[in-house]
């Protein structure tokens, strides 16, 4: 982040004008935040209006209503226009509406945030009043923001109306979505406002057609809760999907079956990305927002940055936004990557780093050969485990925790796989 502070003294002769305070925007920025502090000198009214101009046009105006604002690629403070942050000279606009006889000093602070990789967390499966959910879009977004989450996909059943009604004031990145809901299986379409023209599908051929249409429109396809006893995936598994939801809502037997199935797919050589989602409809039965939480290493805090990040497989899941947090690597390679046969890292080890642990947690490092390392934590907040790479086709990790609410060891965190060519 680059921060520039400019002090501008404004005389009474400059009243009733528009003063420009220039600043430079470098390439690759994803956020501009501007704040001002005004100090009046002597008696008299002092009112400074506020606005923003990019290299070509005015990007927003809030008058005397605000003393700060932000502009991002997809979001902005009301009164300002989001979009591409072009490189070049921008200007903070100061409207000198009222200036005291002795003048005033305006302290302008501009912070520019570079678009770069970082961990983001959120929920990829949630419902609202646009289908059978109890909460509005605004209520869901507010709760996610209070939890410190970065993104949310509203995946109402067989409709896209929620994607046309997103609250723009929220700081959470809102991912357009729809849950294709049939009598024999559900799938999320993520990333486009209107993935299909007609959701209705009563045969395997029609399901295949809906998925092809959604993918052609740019959606990511997720097979949801495939082993749920009430609405599991009973269609042909040979469909063109991107990710599988191995963790749906509170941890239960259906999730365990999907985890085991996913591990079997990895052992057979399939490189399948695992995601999770709360499937939140209403409070009750330990169901809550962002439980589980999907963590993704994203290139930007945008819809495309998040979805592209999930595509890389650098993703892990935790039971809550508080973690546990994990990273799996072999040298410069991370979870989701494929370590080539001739890479120098093949002579070394895989490294698992987990933080946010509690006493009694059990950490497992798992490969195609089974559980390679297992460690029960007694007092450490963080832990490192290592495993040999030779003879393995992948590694992944799990953290299990005893929850007194249900008197049972449940999954607390699970990573995607690091693959070996």
TrEMBL record:
Domain Polymerase/histidinol phosphatase N-terminal: 122-184
InterPro entries per the UniProt record, alphabetical: PHP_domain, Pol/His_phosphatase_N, Pol/histidinol_Pase-like
NCBIfam families reported in the protein's UniProt record: CehA_McbA_metalo (NF038032)
Protein name: CehA/McbA family metallohydrolase
Native organism taxonomy: Bacteria, Bacillati, Bacillota, Bacilli, Bacillales
